[in-house]
Amino acid sequence: MRIAIPIVATMALLAGAGTSAFAQAPGGQPVYTIEKLPPPGPLTPDPNAYPNPYRMETDFLKLPAGRRMGSTSAVAVDSKGHIWVAERCGANSCADSRVDPIMEFDAQGNFLKAFGGGLTLFPHGFFIDARDNIWLTDARIANGGGGQVFKFAPDGRLLLTLGSKGVAGGAPGNFTEANAVIVARDGTIFVADGHTPDKGLARIVKFAPDGRYLGEFGTAGWARGEIEVPHALALDSKGRLFVADRWNNRVSIFRQDGTFIDAWTQFGRPSGIFIDAQDRLYSTDSESRTPVGYGFNPGWKRGIRIGSARTGKVTAFIPDGEPEPDKGATSGAEAMWVAPDGTIYGGTVKERRVVRFVPVR
Q1: Paired residues of 275 in beta bridges
Q2: In angstroms, what CA-CA distances link 19 with 3, 32, 78, 338?
């Protein structure tokens, strides 16, 4: 039996059989189709059987009086060890809110300041560059607003804006759903665009350090070298660009000119990725589920997988703490940043909190 569902044909890949293709749904929206096959046998090696050398901590951030944490897919740590969070204004959206979504905390979790109110609709991607500048993407456009990428100085001054406010795609340098931003050593800026798989938009947009549009690469699709929902970005020591190719249940790797290198499925269905100075690759899976439908990735549990960006070998797994039978669309950390001491910080959407995972020495 053939069914049409908005997923990638991971069952066919895991079982080693079956076919997959694009099709047109009523109204012209592209969907994925897969052959409905018997459930695959045990995965070898078991992607959930790695050791967990971390302990989880919650409630370590001290919010100012009257403030509550909203959903967040944006957390980072600067050179001082200060923790930065961009949350969605106490809810899951900053539309019609004047709350300052960008918050700074010291290393002990004490609140220091907040800024950025009124600029974004849906704070999503976060990055801190070598000079501790704060970069934030807005992944939605509505009512003449949204769809931009902002660069702030640590004191909150707005230094650079990419994209046209409220204008989707079209002209070079505009965004439709800006998921993530990262800055290379030479200052080149990369922005991942495309959060909704049925729009046929999935690309990486490239800018010069001064914000000049340089070009873009990426084609929406499930074949190797194509991407679908490029949800997060990371760079390794060689300057290779790692893309959290979430809808395709893999990490796709490119050169900075857009040349495809490889695609890795062993790190799960990545919502967030991070590569540290030793080329350790961290991938947080907040969506994998076994039932056919959204997040379809049978046999894979949600959590954070850790391994090598050089070899692709996975060595550790931090499981999601939510009970397995009640998996919704998302749970656990969706955003991630790793401090120099190895502490992992995760931002969650469903639970609306920031958690951290401390190495057990």
Answers
A1: 281
A2: 12, 11, 46, 38
Q: What is the DSSP letter of 110?
A: B
Taking alpha carbons only, the member of 127, 118, 263 closest to residue 184 is 127
315 has pLDDT over 70:
yes
| CA nearest to 129, candidates 90, 77, 64 | 77
Residue 259: per-residue pLDDT: 98
Contact 105, 82 (CB under 8 A): yes
Q: What is 54-83 written as a DSSP string?
A: EEEE-S-SBPPTT------S-EEE-TTS-E
Contact 297, 359 (CB under 8 A): no
Q: What is the pLDDT of residue 189?
A: 98
Domains of the chain in sequence order: 1-41 (no CATH), 43-359 (2.120.10.30)
| Helices (runs of H) and strands (runs of E) counted in the chain | 1, 29
Burial class (CB in 10 A: 0-12, 13-18, 19+), 185: exposed
- State the pLDDT confidence band at 43, using cuts at 50, 70 and 90: confident
260-264, strands of its sheet edge to edge: 230-235, 241-245, 250-254, 260-264
Sequence-distant (≥ 6) Cβ neighbours of residue 349 within 8 angstroms = 71, 72, 73, 92, 286, 330, 334
Tokens (6 digits) for 53? 């050398």
Per-residue pLDDT, averaged over 293-322, amounts to 94
**Over 70: is that where the pLDDT of 21 sits?**
no
β-pairing, 123-128 vs 111-115, is unpaired
C-alpha count within 13 angstroms, C-beta hemisphere, residue 182: 24
